[in-house]
Amino acid sequence: MTQPDNRPFAIRTYAPDQLREALKRMYLIRRFEEGAEDSYMRGLIHGTMHLSIGQEASAMASCMELTDDDKITSTHRGHGHCIAKGAEVGRMFAEFFGKETGYCHGRGGSMHIADVKTGNLGANGIVGGGLPIAVGAALSAKRLGKSDVTICFFGDGANNEGAFHEALNMASVWKLPVVFICENNGYGMSTSIARSTSVKHIADRAVAYSMPGVTVDGNDFSAVAEAVHHAVARARAGEGPSLVENLTYRWRGHSKSDRNRYRTKEEIEEWMTRDPIARFRAELIAHGVLDEASADAIEAAAIADMEAGIEFAKASPAPSISDVTRYVYAEN
Amino acid sequence: MNAMTDKPSSQPQNLRTLSYSEAIREAMAIAMEADPTVILMGEDIGVYGGAFQVTLDLVDRFGTDRVMDTPISELGGAGVAVGAALTGLKPIFEFQFSDFAMLAMEQIVNQAAKLRYMLGGEASVPVVFRLPAGSGTGAAAQHSQSIEAWFGHVPGLKVLQPATPEDAKGMLLAALADPDPVMIFEHKLLYKMKGHVPEGSYLTPVGKALVRREGTDVTIVAGSIMLHRALEAAEQLTKDGINAEVIDLRCIRPIDHETILASVRKTGKLMVVYEGVKAFGVGAEISAMVAESDAFDFLDAPILRLGAADAPVPYNPDLERASVPQVDSIEAAARRLTRREV
Ligand SMILES: Cc1ncc(C[n+]2csc(CCOP(=O)(O)OP(=O)(O)O)c2C)c(N)n1
Ligand SMILES: [Mg+2]
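^ inputs. structure came back:
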């Protein structure tokens, strides 16, 4: 009689190469965010940005079973989603530096980072803006007879926008292949869930739209991967949408102007002990997927990719001023 | 940006100065002290102090019952403010960025603006919407727009655009005293600008433009941050002996016809400078107003509009800068106009 496999979901489901690649991309997200923060301090990036440090498992584990034909819609806190979906960090940095080689040719910046070719339909400056768009992408897949799914990332704050409710309702009524992933980091800017939201868990909203809703530890790679795996399978099978809530935390302020007056240092430090990357790395080592040396090598490779990305971006040309109205309409 | 506030000659020394955002905060505090029905609503306006720190510390003074952090629900939040205004409260509702008013168009345009009329004058909606507007912060297409002219198209609304700290305070107090819905577009780049602000309560008249600089050769109408750019351009133009008259539009709806027409009759040339997209904007309204009036006979050159490029606001800082009027482009345009090269 075979023993039940008690190893974590990710370990028993994905090949070692996939797991190593996932760890690499999580390191890449972290280093990218740090590189972006540093570049901002040096004045290479203008505007503002929203860093996802601390939320890497949510982004990466949600994208494990996606191909380039599958779509995601992302948020203002979207750098991690973009990397998890397969973007190159050089072209991302180039976008942040406002260069023509950036994913949006320097027109969008951090808040609109996208990579349409790998299925990332874009970050969004409007909270909740991506939710109906994700439903539309799922409608396309269904009408065009494709098996693609759409993963719709949004924050806890977005669940109070009308667009959230309208989108979930339509996705359910039309049984569309979309997975709604709420990255619940406890706050919409300064406003906690308790002060803004009438349910304790965002996943509780699923009942109102007749779809499955689960809440998982968003800093546990395997827990997220398992929940999203079932939701993606359900979507591909034509059974309709699901809602997955990843409980996580942003280590940094909301944006570059946040003084953290609404949360305590203790709370931030407590969450930092639940580092999703350190946990995933330890899990991979514990189950023999990696040893310390190869994990270090993966981390070093991520740093090298990040640094090369910054160099690429710095060396890239800026858009021409005379092209200010280019891309407003299709070119003939 | 120079801290041009009023006609400089009329200003005694040692006047109290405040920043534009401090002036707005002072207006809110004065109103809240004087009238318990005044409440503040908006996203992160409490302990965070608002995205631009305009409401900073007001929650400590007035408590969370009167300084209400709303969920991220613009349509609902604005609608609650409309309903409260209809029934005895005086809400000041802050949109975190003016761009997000688009999520609340229904309540602003279909409800707030029309309720008094639809109900035959039996209802009043004394709500004030505050909207941080404009480009120049690198926040790209969905956080940098200048959509004030959109609301100029809506009967029932009043649309203000303070350019100075003094007006920022006086307009907010005037908006609160107004029985109808008022939208105040505050420019993000002006929040830190300092200028003289009188103590106590005073009302800046709604619907009155102001000649900020007298001149004889060309009339430049500009509001909000464009006023400061136009004044700077006007200074540059004096080097060539061009003496521009600069009018602070202040109010988009109702628009002050008389101040503009009187100036055009004097100078014979009109230029309108605004940050919104050039087409179908404030410039079109003002140009048509002049063309429809007797002042048309006084024009000795075509009217010139200077607005934003026909594109969303781009992220790249050089493109962003190039996409809206700047001191040098205003100056160059005024030069062409006075030389009749347009
Ligand atoms: C419609 C709209 N309202 C408000 C904002 C300003 N804003 C940007 S992000 C944010 C908080 C979003 O919270 P959440 O959805 O939980 O995402 P998180 O930032 O926590 O990742 C707010 C209020 C916006 N960009 N769009
Ligand atoms: Mg959040």
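The pocket of thiamine diphosphate (ligand 1) is lined by residues A 50, 76-77, 125-127, 155-158, 185, 187-189, 254; B 43, 72, 74, 96, 100, 103 (CB under 6 Å). Chain A has twelve helices and seven strands.
thumbs up if we can close this ticket
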